[in-house]
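Re: your question about ABC transporter, ATP-binding protein

S., sorry for the slow reply, the queue was backed up all week. Below is exactly what I fed in.
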Amino acid sequence: MVEISVSQLIKKFGDKTAVFIPEFCFPAGEIIGLVGNNGAGKTTLFRLILNLVKADSGKVFFNVMDNSSVPRHGKDGETAQHISHLDEAWKQYVAAYLEEGFLIDFLTPREYFTFIAKANGIEKQDVEGLLEDYRPFLGDEILGRQKYIREFSAGNKQKIGIAAALLPSPQFVILDEPFNFLDPSSQNHLKTLLLEYKKRCHASILLSSHNLHHTTDISDRIVLMEDGFVIKNISERTDGAIKELEDYFL
Ligand SMILES: Nc1ncnc2c1ncn2[C@@H]1O[C@H](COP(=O)(O)OP(=O)(O)OP(=O)(O)O)[C@@H](O)[C@H]1O
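Result:
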């Protein structure tokens, strides 16, 4: 299991502070919904976690709780290995789909899935079996046709990117607005898929969304950002907590 903690994390673009988070931990084994208005800093936070943009200050740690060869004491007396971006090992625990730029347009979906699998040490003959879990979500249009990724609709590209992120069974998955572009039945398929994935892999899924209903439906925790700050961390799925969130966005 892997949790991600950030410490003194600051990112500015000119005068604009996009992210300012003194300390925060995204726990292991949870679906965490990151919400906030346009420009709140959600995508920038994801990009900082994924080392796609350089922080002005602060650190991101991937705390791996397993029988690591370099054990140290984490929270609650658990042994954890704290990995920063200085150690390339963090990449084996985290996968993400933020936007179309993650895809390779001149490949077919199958070629792309095989490429991702190979990069993660999965044998070519095992890819078809792994894809079975994603068949109801991907559908025949993606799995059945010899079509290049560049020829698919925005929604189908989104599905390809999400399935590719999940395919190597990472312990921590980051998805930026995964419900965007999806038709209502695909949105429901995605919710089921993410809940099953979390259960099967004991993984964390950190996702941003502007859809409060989908987010509260599947999340164990809702984190609210405003102007770069984390202003709420709601872990109880009570009606009161959801009402509090809805009131914020009124
Ligand atoms: N590359 C960049 N150059 C300049 N400003 C940027 C850049 N990336 C983000 N910003 C600014 O940082 C702030 C946070 O943007 P970010 O995209 O992280 O917000 P967000 O919460 O993901 O918003 P949305 O819900 O609209 O996707 C915004 O004011 C945005 O304009």
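The chain is about 35% helix and 30% strand. Residues 67-74 have pLDDT under 50 and may be disordered.

Happy to talk it through on Thursday.
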